[in-house]
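Hi team,

As requested, here is the filled-out complex form for the GCB run. I kept the field names the same as last time so the parser does not choke. Let me know if anything looks off before we queue the next batch.

— J.
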Amino acid sequence: MRPLRLLAAMGLAVLGISSAWAQPVLVAADMRQQQSLDGPWHWSIDPYRDGLAGFHGEPPNARTNRAADVIAADVMQAKPRTFFEQDMQLSPVVSLPGSWIGHSPEMRLYQGLVWYQREFPATAPKPGTRVFLRIGAAEYRSYVYLNGKPLGEHRGGYTPFAFEVTKLLRPGRNQITIGVDSVRTANDVPPPVTDWETYGGITRSITLVTVPDTYVDDAFVRLTPDGSHIAVSVKLEGPKAANTALKFRIPTLGATLDGKTDDAGKWEATLPVPRNLVRWSPENPKLYDISIDAGADHFADRMGFRTIAVKGTDILLNGKPIFLRGISMHEEELGANPVRAMTPAAARALLSEIKYGLHGNFVRLAHYPHSELTTRLADEMGLLVWSEIPLYWLVNWNNPDTLADARRILAENIRRDRNRSSIVLWSVANETPTNDARNAFLRTMIGDVRSLDSSRLVTAALLSGREGNKIMKIDDPLAADLDVMAINTYNGWYTDDALEDLASQEWRGPANKPLIFSEFGADARAGYHDPVASPHKYSEEYQAAYYRATLAMAAKVPFLRGMSPWILKDFRSPRRQHPLYQQGWNRKGLISETGEHKLAFDVLASDYAKREAADS
Ligand code: GCB
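And here is what came back:
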């Protein structure tokens, strides 16, 4: 077999040539015909990044350094005298997706580059079809090769990316290689310090998606804000994208709409709402199959229809005021050793705790875009969703490249998920410091949300100001730019406030806007009990008392329209190393990592059950 060589072009990819970022959207890719590449992959660490550059930093070159070895795994068998050091095909095997934290005990703290490689059989793409390699998510920076040729790179750990491989696929054996580098710098999104385990590796499914030559790359279907029409926006990609006839259908409603794309391959149209349409809501999460036929493509998705708006201090779902009974969660499956490999069953287990255990109707998917499995399940189960990008804490607000990355990640998230009726809030940031550079940066993000999706509300999790002991102020200038204000508040946990005093704290904010408490919480180690009048922090009793006190405070905030306390489940966090109570876990969960309910779970559940009864 001929050795596969790293090409000079790989150097271009490493230098981040901009065309490498041009990505197809492949909206609703998970509903398309696809071949899964999940399962066994070889893996090898590369701490000095030898696979990406020569030993003097020059672009990789197969003759002078070993960079090519990673890709050219079959060299040795072909030419016994070739110098060769890294052999992926002899490297150990793991099952993907799943972060490398689960590959071996030593990988627990590894930060750097890891190579993955597998072979797979393929047939040559049929004439008139195209094939894309799609990776659901990889943390943080990915370098992707097919049959020795670089396909491109991606930065950002929580959104999908895809490369066309039609011409590179060959009949029979194919080889795919992915380098994933988990190291983030101060310019990245998020920056290095976060209060969660960022889980280096490939954490969502890898698939080959087949579409016709010209196909529906992007489609956005929703109710108009007044609820009178269904609006459809479509973008075709391919040689016949322009001036092509299309047909939009909702078969069970007998609704159809015909049209034709413009010169740019786009089509925008509206259809009066069919009389028999049932609106989606948490109580009745009605979903419809929809389709778009365009040339040879038959595009399908499944979605609900609802409106979301604000009026004064109210949040209106389908025109009716609603209180968001929520909780925050990270993307981390239940169990003693999670590896961020979300499955339908794992997502269902978490969302069921919210919907049926807590009597919730809302979930904050913190602090980054979660798996599409989760947002699809929220549609199906009837949970309203807050979706977020990881502009978290200390972002480099002055760097135009950071802004460009953040805008791309936001667009990748919104384009992936804007047909999910469950999502009602797009959040642009969490607990960021107020200053001019940050305000300008986040205003750009808010503008992007509005131009990508004007049918939903924009929010951000802010920090409050404080006047003495009694007055909490929403004084972040960004509040004026948001539809819904959101505040993370930890009085009585990170502060010395006595729990008895919380209920008399008064919240002041800009008039006429709804507020959500996007976080409040206290750590408790499951099973640590301190049943006395004044329990210690970290005990289940303190956490329960903290919840009672904070809920009493919340009940008095006249413009509060929802909450998503921190957090459903204990989650891994490298910052949390208290030897007795934390041991590498943030313990603010209402359930432990293995699913035991703490006392505070029932405190929140009974508050929500009362609100639910009052609202029905
Ligand atoms: C916060 C952060 C969240 C942390 C949490 C905590 O305000 O938004 O990421 O995990 O507090 O536990 O301190």
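Two things worth flagging: The longest strand covers residues 113-122. The chain is about 15% helix and 30% strand.

Thanks,
J.
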